[in-house]
Design brief:
Length: 202
């Protein structure tokens, strides 16, 4: 759990703690579909005949993407002791790699080590995929990560505000092609859950 880097807000959240509409919040059907998908992944994990797949979960802000991704990590860690990791694409992955080039950084020279850590963990969440700047460096580092996880058949859970199709033309389509095979694309169409706690303005 300590190595998983799950943000405090989403730690100790489980399938059973998610609001599925029992309270006054009424989630969109798309949220139920995504929840069912997460439920199946978690409960079938130990079944040798089950072939797990990652997801590409996308939708508007506050629709519950980060929550669902972290719930899967929490469940897999607590039920099966699976090695999991959470990373925001910029802050936790791309910036961590860039830091290794700085001579005064604690992680100076450890680029390969960090990349291997992300490539080898059993289940990786890449949160906010698509917020990173379009650059040759970013595309190459993400391609290397995704290709390595693809080849090792590791599970990758991506969240984004943009549909997967936007990656068709980016990075020569090589990231897109792998993600199409590694993940199931699910769109969340729910309203912003954060607004539930905001008093209505008149
Ligand atoms: N169905 C739900 N049940 C309980 N809490 C929820 C639900 N959906 C969202 N939340 C809560 O609402 C807040 C926003 O959800 P979350 O951070 O997952 O949104 P997001 O889709 O990742 O948004 P963004 O695109 O802005 O990152 C979080 O505090 C989350 O725990
Ligand atoms: Mg989020």
């Amino acid at each position: 759990m300590e190595n998983a880097n799950i943000p405090a807000r989403y730690r100790f959240q489980f399938l059973s703690t998610i609001d599925l509409g029992e309270s006054n919040h009424d989630p969109d059907l798309s949220f139920i579909v995504a929840h069912d998908w997460a439920n199946e992944l978690v409960h079938s994990w130990a079944d040798p005949s089950f072939v797990p797949q990652g997801f590409y979960l996308w939708g508007g802000t506050g629709s519950g993407k980060t929550l669902l991704a972290c719930v899967i990590l929490n469940e897999l860690i607590f039920r099966y002791g699976v090695k999991c990791k959470y990373a925001k694409v910029n802050k936790d992955f791309l910036s961590a790699i860039r830091d290794t080039y700085q001579t005064d950084s604690e992680t100076h020279g450890q680029e390969r080590f960090i990349e291997r850590e992300f490539a080898n963990v059993d289940v990786l969440v890449i949160d906010d995929f698509g917020v990173q700047k379009e650059s040759e460096f970013n595309n190459r580092k993400l391609y290397d990560l995704i290709d390595s996880r693809y080849e090792q058949e590791k599970i990758t859970l991506l969240t984004s505000n943009h549909p997967l199709d936007e990656w068709r033309e980016r990075g020569q389509g090589r990231i897109y092609s792998r993600l199409m095979e590694m993940t199931k694309e699910i769109q969340l169409k729910c309203p912003d859950y954060r607004m539930k706690f905001t008093p209505e303005r008149v």
